[in-house]
Amino acid sequence: MTAHYRALTLADRDDYLALMLAAYAPVRALGIHFDAATADLAKVSRHLQQHDVWGLFIDRQMVSSVTLRYPWGPLPGPFGLPHIGWFGAHPAFSGKGYGKQLLDWLEQEILRARLKAPAVSLGTATSHPWLRAMYLKRGFQPMHETDLGKGHITLYMKKVLDEASHAEWLARQSLRAARTLTGA
Q: β-strands 83-89, 141-147: how paired?
């Protein structure tokens, strides 16, 4: 069994769509309106063109994927940090930890090593029965809730990846906010 991680391309769109629809089937059953839960080929193609999306492949089969959105991209997260978007693991491989493996890889190889990100954010539905607990267990902390007009309340969460660089980032954010208030 060979595992590898790689960025997805438009050539992966059919497999990616199949993975997202399978992974988000329980979300659809709960009546939660995540964008990935109702994706189609056109939406997946745009998603792959606009964001970085990585997949975990086992013997050339995509078993999990995760999107990373950037503050400078078309759909930034709420804090000016990299933001985890569509994330899922194929239910045919339930219990194997492939989603956890992919998130661990993303954190170590992309967020920490490549981007040197001080923290990362994500959003989930407050009404989802297990995602909040899963993300808390992974070190994410609740930040605030908002209604994005999708039929559920979104809980934004943040995970600090490097305490020192996060403290520096917070200081820069405060300075920018102060300058904006004073018009400087």
A: unpaired
Q: Which residues of 24-35 are buried (b: 16+ CB within 10 A; e: fewer)?
A: beebeebebebe
At residue 48's C-alpha, the angle toward residues 47 and 53, to 5°, is 105
Strand, coil or helix: what is 97? coil
- Taking only the tens of pLDDT, the chain with its 184 residues reads 788 999 999 999 999 999 999 999 988 888 888 888 889 999 999 999 999 999 999 999 999 999 999 999 999 999 999 999 999 999 998 889 999 999 999 999 999 999 999 999 999 989 888 889 999 999 999 999 998 888 888 999 999 999 999 999 999 888 877 777 776 5
Fold held by 3-182 = Aminopeptidase (3.40.630)
Flag whether the pTM goes above 0.90: yes
